[in-house]
Amino acid sequence: xxxxxxxxxxxxxxxxxxxxxxxxxxxxxxxxxxxxxxxxxxxxxxxxxxxxxxxxxxxxxxxxxxxxxxxxxxxxxxxxxxxxxxxxxxxxxxxxxxxxxxxxxxxxxxxxxxxxxxxxxxxxxxxxxxxxxxxxxxxxxxxxxxxxxxxxxxxxxxxxxxxxxxxxxxxxxxxxxxxxxxxxxxxxxxxxxxxxxxxxxxxxxxxxxxxxxxxxxxxxxxxxxxxxxxxxxxxxxxxxxxxxxxxxxxxxxxxxxxxxxxxxxxxxxxxxxxxxxxxxxxxxxxxxxxxxxxxxxxxxxxxxxxxxxxxxxxxxxxxxxxxxxxxxxxxxxxxxxxxxxxxxxxxxxxxxxxxxxxxxxxxxxxxxxxxxxxxxxxxxxxxxxxxxxxxxxxxxxxxxxxxxxxxxxxxxxxxxxxxxxxxxxxxxxxxxxxxxxxxxxxxxxxxxxxxxxxxxxxxxxxxxxxxxxxxxxxxxxxxxxxxxxxxxxxxxxxxxxxx
Length: 499
Hints:
- By secondary structure, the protein is mainly alpha-helical.
- The chain contains 20 helices and five strands.
- The chain starts with 7 loop residues before the first helix and ends with a strand.
């Protein structure tokens, strides 16, 4: 079956429906939803139910659109307060780390390529190109897996991983484009390459920051009567930021991520509804992107690359990624050995390497189809081996934490209200002076507005009995006093949201 205007909506809706159901089933059994989306695309593709899709240009276009939304949404969900203490290691991993991974993996591929059956004898530059395409961790995979698991991690590991995956695409993209040019032209100018890389990164970062500020300014002042149009306007800004930065010869992927960071950490009208819209839209395009990439590959073509694919995949997981992480984090003494091991393990590959693998295809590089199939196979291996063990590895290394508490009350205050809202879990110590709400020692101008007990919600009064394990929604004018009160009550698990 060939996709055309007559059946694309029918087939597309069926694919989306099956993907969502598969994702729900996968979550229950601990399988990454993104792997299942990829699998659905392969099942419906040319070697499966017969949908014919063989256009890398269209796949790349869909991937660029999807990544713009995913990176912007990921930036919006990341707090400056979380990434500021770990900005140094995150940036090092996202730049120097990508380069080290490319060199180590490229050298390994070049060494073994002539000895493996069904593997062409790759040149050094072709080996480096294959390694560069796979050198970045995938933002879509890392964001979705870490956040869907609701996993709390010690030593600020989650923001490190999210910052790295959200900002390392530009380096991998630049290395990919640079190596394609070297293979095509046959020349390599070190200083010109370094200059091009610096321009891409600096223009991308500056453009993302400035246009992010402009986005917030416009959103707060445009005063649209129809509130539903605010998410649409923000979507338009995300596309504009990517394309405008690309016109300026900067890196659009970095720009949209930084712009999302700026927008997510500024006060903005209708921010809650807009963020909800982008979260749903991000998931939609993750599904579409993985389905498209699944349709693009022919599973029968993966069989000949299983041998070398397994070798390269295992080498990257066991050697290249850990060596890179340990080298990059040498100057940062605040990470324990276990933390470094965990960062090494969560080096997930996903849609981004597959999208980057379409660039050699479009450029007509020799062995580009082989490179694409290898990247696709290694992505499957990474999601199967690493993606399914993110939580288990954290528990095994004793790095899982209860610090990142799940929000029990889906409530937020308008930006106009200058108050702090928090959720607390009541302990035996907190009830030392009595088990009534009036017995809790809370600061002045503080109000407990709702209680959750056994999945039931109710509004408390002063004489309401409070039990250990109850969750309280509290609003206060004084955040610092409230924190002190929690400490005096022996309450350790709470989340604070300040307006």
